[in-house]
Amino acid sequence: MKLIEIIPSYFTSRATSLRCQQLVTALGKQFVVCKATPGFIVNRMARPFYLEGFRLLEENVALAPQIDRALKAGGHFRMGPLELTDFIGQDINYQVSKQIWQDMQFDPRYTPGHLQRSLVDAGLLGRKNGRSFFASQPATPPNPTTEGDTPTSLHFYGEHALFDHLQQRALATWPALRVQRLPERPELGRFILVNNRLAIKITDGRTANLLAGLTALDTFVIDAALNYADTAYLVAAHNQHATETNKALFLTLLQTLIAQVEFIKDSPALIVARVLSSLINESVIMVESGVCSRADIDIAAVAGVNYADGIFAWLAQLGQKNVKSTLDNMAQLLHSTRYYPHYSLLNAARPELAVAPKEK
């Protein structure tokens, strides 16, 4: 373990705390300092990763392999939440979630899933006893064929790095393609209009069906990714009555940039955006309530749970406004208190939270 959490009590002197920090440094490890609160930093900070993974499965949003694969591809996680809980042991992971939930006065943000409890009751604990529920899950469905129309015109409303990458690949594939860049629309924000007949939007927490009511077109929502240019797998959703022709056109365009795109259930924030936004919100709550510093959160994320980057680095990359709007829509459509954004996300003037977006 690269990380040691130092938890001073009410009676721990400053000198003792400093001696602990010096000892940890001498051992060649990193340390974080945290108040004596449930889960300390690592276990509390990482709860949304596991809990949202199970909630996505319980809500039938996607298959287990799709959930894990989407988070590894788009969120740069080393393992997905479902395979990681198998690795840890379902009983251990469930017990930690349950203990934090109880200690946090049954706050709905920490409510454990009934599915994980059923795995524990059935003895499907994962690697530790060689019995895994997820190992028997069906493989993801085959990639849909994309035979059909090709794009003839693209209208990009607003700016996003994905739009730049997609425009470049599309023009390389179809040199006669007509491209126009326009300001984003107030009610829709940033989106792409393809052949004047279908709309594509990066998820902001609203479902494709809701957005289709605004566009009056077949509408496709794509999941978030930390770097679309190096993402080989992406999930998307479409409105209920989208035509097969428009589905094929959407896939034809997206697969010029991303090798495999799979449709999942039309649900708020899909997979990556839902998990990242939940992780960010929890970390913001911890910092604002004085549990630890922002720097300690990012150290714990990288050295403690082996994330590819710090959680506040994700906030910078995704953009504070985008994270806040995603959480707002999740709160409206999924659970009013579980996903409600911390008020500090409203205030970009706060230096510890005011971070410029760095989309890739």
UniProtKB/TrEMBL annotation:
InterPro entries: 3HC_DH_C, 3HCDH_RFF, 6-PGluconate_DH-like_C_sf, 6PGD_dom2
Keywords carried by this UniProt record: Oxidoreductase
Oxidoreductase in keyword set: yes
EC number: 1.1.1.157
GO molecular function: 3-hydroxybutyryl-CoA dehydrogenase activity
Domain 3-hydroxyacyl-CoA dehydrogenase C-terminal, first and last residues per copy: 39-134, 271-342
GO annotation (BP), single: fatty acid metabolic process
UniProt domain 3-hydroxybutyryl-CoA dehydrogenase reduced Rossmann-fold: residue ranges: 201-268
Xref: PANTHER family: 3-HYDROXYACYL-COA DEHYDROGENASE FAMILY PROTEIN (PTHR48075), 3-HYDROXYBUTYRYL-COA DEHYDROGENASE (PTHR48075:SF5)
Protein name: Probable 3-hydroxybutyryl-CoA dehydrogenase
Organism of this sequence: Serratia plymuthica
Gene responsible for this protein: paaH_1
